[in-house]
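quick q for whoever's on today - can somebody do inverse folding on this one?? i tried earlier but teh output was garbage lol. tokens:
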């Protein structure tokens, strides 16, 4: 019985078409890349990071200036309201409070727009780096004969020889000497067509 089973398995193995054997995946040749390091240390990345840090500091300074500018008026209005001991404020105090509220809303709007602008700049910088990062990884993979690239954070352990971060960083630096530290380009708004009758 065993001999019969062995012959059946052997015959089945011989009968497998050659095309099925050819469809086997090649052995993995893996390289490891420290993506965070590339995004942090590339020449254009460091220059952009320094410029964005300056803009963030300017935004923080503006926020502090607006707070310092508005605080005395807020305290004065609060003191005037407290002095009324629950009585209704007169027209002048109401008008003063409304004017303060408008100034506060304008300050919040200014800071909100500046924050959105900074976020848009950051997104644009990342978009430009990403556009060069993948081709750099592909180039290094081709040079090393690799068919799989893995981020270092996705590995448990790896040999130093498979870490190609320096080569990827050099390739990114070669193709991305600088980035535009400007907000993302505005996308054109789709025009709505009037509905026909």
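ok took a stab at it. sequence:
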């Amino acid at each position: 019985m065993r001999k019969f089973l062995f012959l059946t398995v052997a015959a089945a193995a011989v009968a497998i078409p050659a095309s099925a054997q050819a469809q086997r995946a090649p052995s993995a040749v893996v390289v490891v890349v420290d993506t965070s390091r590339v995004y942090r240390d590339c020449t254009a990345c460091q220059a952009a990071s320094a410029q964005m840090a300056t803009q963030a500091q300017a935004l923080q300074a503006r926020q502090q200036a607006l707070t310092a500018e508005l605080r005395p008026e807020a305290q004065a209005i609060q003191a005037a309201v407290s002095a009324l001991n629950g009585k209704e404020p007169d027209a002048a105090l109401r008008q003063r409070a409304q004017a303060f509220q408008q100034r506060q809303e304008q300050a919040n709007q200014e800071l909100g727009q500046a924050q959105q602008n900074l976020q848009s700049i950051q997104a644009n910088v990342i978009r430009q780096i990403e556009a060069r990062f993948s081709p750099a990884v592909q180039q290094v993979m081709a040079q090393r004969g690799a068919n799989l690239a893995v981020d270092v954070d996705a590995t448990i352990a790896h040999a130093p020889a498979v870490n190609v971060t320096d080569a990827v960083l050099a390739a990114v630096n070669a193709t991305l000497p600088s980035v535009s530290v400007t907000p993302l380009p505005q996308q054109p708004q789709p025009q709505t067509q009037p509905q026909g009758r």
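fwiw The longest strand covers residues 30-33. also Residues 1-15 have pLDDT under 50 and may be disordered. so keep that in mind when u check it
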